[in-house]
Amino acid sequence: MERIDDPRLAVYVVWGPMLGPETEADAREATSLLPDPRVAHFWTGVHTLAERLREPAGLADELAWDTFLLFEPEARWGERPPAPSAVMHVDKRLPPAQRLNGERLAEAVRKLLGSPRGP
Amino acid sequence: MRRARAVFVCAASPGASPKGTPLSYLGRFAAATILALGWPGGAAAAPGAPPVPSVEGFWRGVILYQPAEIELEFSVELARDAAGRLVGTIDLPTQRMEFYPLSAVRQEGASVFLQFRRDSEARGPNAPFDFHGELDAGGQILRGTFVGFYHGDRNRFPFELTRAGAAGMERPEPARPPVHPLAPGGDELAAAFDRDAGRVRLVMLLSPT
Fold first, then answer.
1. What is the interface pTM, i.e. ipTM, of the complex?
2. Tens digit of pLDDT for each residue in A28-72?
3. pLDDT-based confidence at B25, cuts 50/70/90?
4. A106 torsion bin: left (phi>0), alpha (psi -120 to 50), beta (else)
5. Lesser CB count within 10 Å: N end or C end of chain A?
6. Chain A partners of B7 at a C-beta cutoff of 8 Å?
7. Nearest-angstrom CA–CA distance, A34 and A56
8. Contact (Cβ atoms closer than 8 angstroms) between residue B10 and residue B28
9. Residues of chain B contacting A100 with CB distance shorter than 8 Å
């Protein structure tokens, strides 16, 4: 986040029971890892959202936990999640080129922001 | 209480450790840009050689598990006890380790050895986790190899620490932003998403442990 000092970026972190036993208290603790004011933290105790985002993430039969979906400024959610402009993942059955890489993700964000390359 | 403040660029789920990783969390971090401060003391040097800076102080850095993919942010605080022995603690926020005691701290010239012990899924109880490092000439950077996640050749990862201040310095309590409970379908997320139309938006689904 500190590498992209631009208020036109909004980040939503959905904490949830990806591994099973996680709780909302765990999520409250984990927020300290992402204290940036542009980040909104949510907690869900079920997998419904991870199922809803499966298709936009391009996943066939895996839940969308540990995925990172990037959306352009024009995207609207409305009744169903829009198609992301980029997806990254950790250990999913998706192309290796989409594996989470902080530098590539930052570059994709900058591209959508139309801002010059950062440090 | 003094606390360490984690500095993230973005994070994989704390619980999303690569398969077989004995530590429960591996995340994606960025090294903080740190102002280097002065420090007292010095380590033994060969006769005629310039004095080697002491490793005492507060340090922040990363273990480069997979550079740009999985980088573990951590910090160490090193000081001397009443008997003059080097002692210290390590903070590894992704492992919920704060002020965790180091079991060994040694400095011989520019060579520094740090160790903590912890139960390891792969290596059994009270397994050693070692940092073998070298101080740069100015005493501001400590870089080397971290050993401990696995057995064998793939068990070595580069690390780099940057001096961030003196031992015992105040460390602010970390900010903990509020968490908003979601309805099962994520309606609140959808509303926030549409409210922020016009901005680039990044949605991340993560485990908090």
1. 0.95
2. 989 988 899 999 999 999 999 999 999 999 999 999 999 999 999
3. very low
4. alpha
5. C
6. 2
7. 24
8. yes
9. 10, 12, 28, 69
